Amino acid sequence: MNEGLRAIGLGEAQVMATLLVLARVGPLFALGPVFGSRLLNSRARALCAVGLSFGIAPVVARDVEVPTGVVELVMVLAGEVLVGLAFAYVVSLLFAAVSAAGSMLDTLIGFSYGSLVDPVTGTQASVLSNAYAMMAALIFLAIGGDAWVVEGLARTYTLLPAGDAVSTAALAEGARTAFSGIFLSAVQIAAPVMLALILTDVALGIVTRAVPQMNAFAVSFPVKIVVGLLVLVASLPYAGGWIGDQVQDSVRDAMRTVAAAG
User: Fold this and answer.
1) What is the pTM of this model?
2) What per-residue confidence (pLDDT) applies to 6?
3) What three-state secondary structure class fits 44?
4) Within 13 A of 261's CA, how many CA atoms are on the CB side?
5) Buried b (16+ CB within 10 A) or exposed e, 224-247
6) Are 62 and 158 in contact, with CB atoms under 8 Å apart?
């Protein structure tokens, strides 16, 4: 086996480094934002993961230690997979917050009665949740978020070298901390539209009190749709700027989570 590797110009350290990098990079193309999108063919995602692994492996190979046994090899690979899962999970929570904001607005406006399939996540989503997810993906690509994520993942090898012992408790705590901020982030995105819809409900309540003969339930649907969509369009620059700032913060949070596991 070793002679065969040397014949094609590869050493044990290089092969091991490629496997370790693939174990950490792979989860990004399964769970990560845009990278793991169902719009991308699974074979294309696999090829991208392998190509990225070959690009990072030469740097990792300098300090990698080749495990002597099968059990040790499995444990090391499992640790790298956990690190990759934690990184991808923390980064993807931003998109979860954006989708949650869209779901909140769908419920308030009344669009939740009809649902679509979100092409980004492949799950069932309502109208505005789907629109927000697509907007977040476009902003992510427009500002170079994909490059930030790849760069952040590459820097994790400085914070936690490949093959080092991994603290699963630290990874779980970092993921839990990031998850706890989803609701607050969703409210921040949807706040302008939510406030407008609440004021609309108050105004309709006052009108109904003054004119009991009016069917407020029938009137509220078109009124809330018009108000909600108008304020949503007006608040898109705010939402886009917020998403752009949070992409960098989510990558930093993911890197801190990995660093804490070292």
Assistant:
1) 0.81
2) 45
3) helix
4) 34
5) beebbeebbeebeeebbebbbebb
6) no
Q: What is the pLDDT of residue 8?
A: 38
SS3 124: strand
117 and 203 Cβ atoms separated by less than 8 Å: no
Both structure tokens of 87: 């990184």
Task: Enumerate residue ranges in the chain where pLDDT < 50.
Answer: 1-9
Strand partners, 124: 117
Take residue 144 and report the two structure tokens written for it: 């170079």
Q: What CA–CA distances, in Å, run from 23 to 81, 166, 212, 215?
A: 5, 14, 65, 60
- Chain-centre distance for alpha carbon 245: 14
Cβ atoms of residues 250 and 95 within 8 Å = no
Distance CA 44, CA 11 (A): 27
Structure tokens at 156: 């994790």
What residue ranges do the domains of the chain occupy? Answer: 2-260
Q: What is the pLDDT of residue 13?
A: 65
d(CA 64, CA 262): 15
